[in-house]
Amino acid sequence: MRIIVGITGASGALYAMELLRHLRASGHEIHAVVSAYGWKLLEHECGAGRAELAGLCNYLHENENLAASIASGSFRADAMVIVPCSMRTLAAVAAGMADKLICRAADVMLKERKNLILAVRESPLSAIHLENMLKLARLGVCLMPLCPGFYHRPQSIAELAAMMAGRIMDALNIPNEVCQRWQGM
Ligand SMILES: Cc1cc2nc3c(=O)[nH]c(=O)nc-3n(C[C@H](O)[C@H](O)[C@H](O)COP(=O)(O)O)c2cc1C
Fold first, then answer.
1. What is the pLDDT of residues 109-131, one digit of tens each?
2. Ligand 1, pocket residues at CB < 6 Å
3. What domain range is 135 assigned to?
4. In the chain, which ranges are continuous DSSP H helix?
C-alpha cells in the first residue's frame, strides 16, 4: 500500500514515531509530511528531527509544497493517517482548507473516497472540536482519539504507544501483532 502519514503540532509525537517504525517494517510505501508545529513537537517530545523522520519513510514531503505527488488524486495513495492530529488541522480538514500539503492530501482522500484516519489529540474538547469531528465522521473519516486502553496492563509508555500504533494499523487494514489482543476474561 501507498500510505501518507501527516504529523501535526498536537502532543503525542511518540505515537507518530512508533507508527512509522511499524509501517516501515511492514514494507509499505510511506509518504510523511510534518507541519511546522509538528516539527517542534517531534523535537520537544522525542528529540527527533529530519534525519530520524527521513529514516522512517520512503518520501519526506514539505508541508508548503502543494505540488508534491500526494497533492493529487491521480497519484492514487491508498490511505492517510494524521497522527497526532491537532484541532487546527482537524478544523482545516473539516472546512476543506487545502492550503498546506497535509490538509490538501486529506482533502484528496475525502474526494477520492479513500481511507482517512485522524488520530486527534486535545483535552478537554470544545463543541467546535466535537462538531468538526462529527462532520468528518459522517463523511466516513475514522476519528481515532489518542486514548490507549489499559486493559492489557501496560508497564511502559512504549507499550501505550505500541497499543495505539497497532490499533491505527488495524484501521489501515494492515495485519499486525503490534498491539496486544483482548482474549476475554
Ligand atoms: C507544546 C505544545 C503542545 C500542544 N498540544 C496540542 C494538542 O495536544 N492538541 C492541539 O490541538 N494543539 C496542540 N498545540 C497547539 C498546536 O500546535 C497549534 O494549534 C498549531 O497551530 C497546530 O498547527 P498544525 O495543525 O499545522 O500542526 C500544542 C502546542 C504546543 C506548543
1. 999 999 999 999 999 999 999 99
2. 8-11, 35, 37-38, 41, 86-89, 121-122
3. 2-171
4. 13-25, 36-41, 50-54, 87-95, 101-111, 127-138, 157-171
